[in-house]
Write a structure and sequence with these properties.
The protein has one helix spanning 7-31. The protein is mainly α. 0% of the residues are buried. The protein is built from one helix and no strands.
Length: 37
């Protein structure tokens, strides 16, 4: 069994993808914070 086949590794990959998407949304919100209106 390769380490990449372990369920915990797949869960970690999914969590990292979720955190990446969350970070991108937060960064966009901060970038737009100074936009008037």
């Amino acid at each position: 069994m390769a380490i990449g086949d372990l369920p915990i590794v797949e869960m970690m990959k999914q969590r990292m993808q979720w955190l990446t998407a969350r970070q991108q949304v937060l960064a966009q919100n901060v970038a737009n914070a100074d936009t008037p209106g």
